[in-house]
Structure formats: C-alpha cells, structure tokens
Design a protein that fits this description.
This protein is of the alpha/beta class. Helix content is 39%, strand content 15%. It is globular, with a radius of gyration of 23 Å. The termini are far apart.
Length: 526
Amino acid sequence: MSDEPRPPRPDPHDGPDDDAGAPLPSAGGEFEEFESIVGEETDRDPDLAVIEAGSRTLRAQAGPPQGDPVPSRPADPELDRRLAEVEAELATRWGETKLDPSVRRIAALVDVLGEPQRSYPAIHLTGTNGKTSTARMIETLLGAFDLRVGRYSSPHVQSITERISVDGAPLPAERFIETYEDVRPYVELVDASEEYRLSFFEVLTGMAFAAFADAPVDVAVVEVGMGGTWDATNVVDGDVAVITPISLDHTDRLGGTPEEIAVEKSGVIKPDAAVVLAQQPVGAASVMLKKAVEVDATVAREGLEFGVTQREVAVGGQLLTLRGLNGDYPDVFLPLHGAHMAHNAAVALAAVEAFFGVGREGTRTLDPQVVREAFAAVSSPGRLELVRSSPSVLLDAAHNPGGAVATAEAVTEAFGFSRLVGVVGPSGGKDVRGLLEAFEPIFAEVVVTRNSTYRAMDVDELAALAVEVFGEERVQVEPRLDSALEEAITLAEEEGEYAGAGVLVTGSVITVGEARLLLGGRGGAA
C-alpha cells in the first residue's frame, strides 16, 4: 500500500478500550456537540477539523442518505444538451468492451490529477456477480454510521451519472458536467503522450476519483469494471478488498476457468488489506487465499468467519440473521429478494465491519439497530425490481448463467407466479445458451428481443438458440424492445386479471435500463 498518509478513519467505538463488547454508536441517538467533534480531531489541521465536524454534524441531522438511485434526464433543456455533449465525447473513446490489459494510462491520469484516489480510504470490490448490489449495501451501511460515502459502479441502468454517487445519490447532472470539464485538460494531456487515448471507462474512473476528493468523501466504495489486476480502478489501494462470487463470464478476457478468473481478480488484494471473501468455487478460493498470504492480508470467509445463519421470506423482501465478524445481527429486514441477496448482505456487513476494525479490536460489533435501519433502506435498481403490477413486471440484470440461476431461484421463491413470460435481450459474446437454460424451467414462454445498442445480440441468432432450448412453440420474436414488452404483457394477461401471471425482463443491464424507461420506472418518469 502507499506510504502516503491517509486521513484518519473515524473512530466508531463507544467508550474506552476496556469496554469490550459495547456496540458502535447509534446514528439515531444523541449526537455530540460540534465543539466536541472538533476537539476529537486532535491530529488534523484545525481548519480541516472544523470542516469535518460540520460535515459530520449535518449528516447526523439529516439521517441516512436518501436519493433517487436512477435519475431521469435533466429537466432543463440546456443542461440536458450539455450532458448529452459530454456523453457524446466520451462515446468517441474505446468502449468498455475494448480493453488493453494495462493500468499505464489511468496511472498517468491520476498522477497529473494529483493522486486524488489516495486522499480517502477505499473499499474495493471485484467478482462476477453481485458487485453492484453489494456495493450499494456497503454504501448504505457506511452512510448510516455518519460517513460521507462516494460510490463508483458500472454499468449504469439509465443515466451515466449513476456511476458516480456521493451521499447515496448520483452526481447531479451539472456537477457531473463540471467534473468532466475539470479533468478534460488532464485527459487531453495524457492522450497526447500515450499510444492510445484513454478509454471511456478510464476517463470515468478518473472523474470519480476526482469527484470524491472534491466532495470530500470519508470513504470510497469502488467497483471494478472487469477483472482486477489491470482494471482501471486498481490504482486505488483498498483498505478492504471484497470478492463477490466468481463464475464464468468474460472468458475471452479473464480466463476459461474459475481459477484463471480468480488470478486476475485477486489483483485487488493489496498488502495489509482486509479481504472479505464470498462463497467461491474451491479452486477460486484457493487462488485468493494464496494471494492474501503473499501480501500479508487478513481474510474473512463467508461460511466460516461470517455468513447468513437464518433466512425467511417476508413481504417485500426477507428477514435475516447475519453472523458478523464478532457476533450475530438478528431481525435484519432486507427489501430485496433471493438467497443471493442475503449472501450479498452478509458480505457487505463483513466489509463494513472490517473497515471499522471489528474482529481486530476486542469483541465489539456494529450497533445492531443502525445495521437494521441501513439494510431496510437498501435499494438495487434493476435487480428483481417490480416496476408494474397487473400483471407484475420484474426487471433483473442477470447476464450470465450464474446470475440467471440465482434470479430464477429467487423468482420462484418470492413470487410463485402461476405463469411467467420472459423478455430476454442479451449482449453478444455472452454464454447466452447457458443463460436461457437457467431460465427455461420458470418461463412458460419467452419473447426474444434486443436493446438499442451495438452490443445487442442479433435477434435471429438469439431466436435460433431460444428455439433449441425452449422449443419453437414457446418462443416469440420481437426485434423492438417496446413491442417485446407489449407482447409479453399481452401473453401474461391471457390468464386473466387474478391468475398470478408475470413478466420478467432480463439478459442485460442495458435491456433492463431501456425497459425501465419504457415502463416508466422510478427515474424514468418526466
């Protein structure tokens, strides 16, 4: 890890060191006076201490961060035009599917920006499935403990501004544009000195790091774009490295086995970091553990040091008992569906505990009530999100077989539809057969379609695969997504208003985002 000094992490402990076992302070109780907070900041510049104290006081008064997770286009036509211009300029660069396995260019960019990613501690996430949902849970938990959090995630559901969030909400369009204008001269400087221009993702990564430093945030939650070692986000040194479940995806770039993929993803594990490891294939776990030993990182493993000890389906989600690094957290309501989301919650909790030093300092735990309040406020747009009723229409961004299996199990458990119609629009280059096979047992019929981007799979090719998996009589083809949605809803309605039929739109984050707009989901309305 870098030898450069980091801002001190807020001490979350309540009472002196000999008060082992006491929970961390509650965000809902009485808060210290402003002057007391300033007095605690004895090892910081006095001016910075006053700024930080004011920030903490305001956040405490405001409560957990609230914001629209999926913003609509700006209402101001001029602002919308300027945002569109930024998006158009970024689109001229290498897209996220064209990669060069190197961090040279992003390292050059953050160097000329003054290494903004080193001005705050970070929690760095990689894995195949569950990264964004877990990142959102981590963000919400940290915010509930009065930290100002920056989150960088990809891809976005509807708006590019979703990728960079501060205080639990995407950057406002105006601030996003300002951030781009601030970094553009430095981007152009690096472009001129390198063989290839910075990519779309590299520029956004630089923007995120700069925005977090400008905010400033107390901690950044950073999700890799793809892989780990050579991902653009890997110029950050994560105090906590989180590895969500690994399965086969992007095999042309990351490797054809879980072990090969784990080698690439283990690059986020830095010296002396805390590693939070979700349940993994045995080979992948071995790779991760070996890397942790090599760099003297500590490891917490799901199923051993932490995990889900009890789970019950509840109205609107599920009720959990989570085992943390030093004790249990019972009666945690999570307003998300599926066993995979429960496991994501356990990983997120362990990551936040590791960040606060739980497990290393006595027997302390986080305040259980704050944990409950935070998880109850979690949202994850496009992940089994209900956007319409009569018939029910669900959106889920599953785009590989592993994600599809988890989604299929969750739909069966939580909804029990009498008849479910699928709308599937995947990107090209994926294991689409595996994805279709995972959904075949739960789809009565499937409508194959495509989203509006160049990455969408050819509809005729998709239809041929779907016929092989489902049989010709169960497959409908609608090249336009709006027509596909209309057809699926019509098929579901054939059973009658009270028959319990539903529609699941899936296959790609892009498809889900476009469907969300078409169906008027939150953020899609004018």
